[in-house]
Amino acid sequence: VAVIDTYRGKDRAVAKIMDKSALARKDQKAAPVRSEQLRYDSVVAVNPGEYEVQLDAADGKQESRASLVALKHESYVVLRVGVEGEHGEQFPSELVVYPNPDPVALHSAAAQPFASLASVSLATFAALWAC
Fold it and tell me: 112 exposed, middle or buried (CB, 10 Å; 0-12, 13-18, 19+)?
């Protein structure tokens, strides 16, 4: 997973990744949800599975949340996007995950690849070009 911050503005936010199955547990005695910070401009490895990626403001308030379905041998990009402008339109800070395959593909023996390294490289190049 490539993690890229393309946000334009002064706002500082932290991206975190959490196991989605742990979030769905209803048992109060279950272990706390494990969460790890995603550093911008880095690449991290994740095991196949369903995850939630969350963007928290400096004050701890959740700004955005997105699902990430990680398939075996696939590549993904998590982008923080938005613009804090002094003039003109403003766009709030949010997360975009690409590609976003169907969770059914995790359990399908005949799952087809949803993204090639070329498409993820293209998305990464486009995000860096915007900087």
Answer: exposed
pLDDT in tens, 63-102: 999 999 999 999 999 999 999 988 888 899 999 999 988 8
Are 106 and 69 in contact, with CB atoms under 8 Å apart?
A: yes
| DSSP-derived 3-state class of residue 55 | strand
Q: Rounded CA gap, 107 and 82, in Å?
A: 34
> What DSSP designation does 41 have?
T
With CA atoms as reference, report the closest residue to 37 among 83, 69, 5: 5
CA separation, residue 67 to residues 8, 17, 53, 94 (Å): 23, 10, 6, 12
Count Cβ atoms within 10 A of the Cβ of residue 1 and give its class: 0-12 exposed, 13-18 middle, 19 or more buried.
buried
For the chain, percent of residues with pLDDT exceeding 90: 54
- Enclosing H/E stretch for 19: strand 13-19
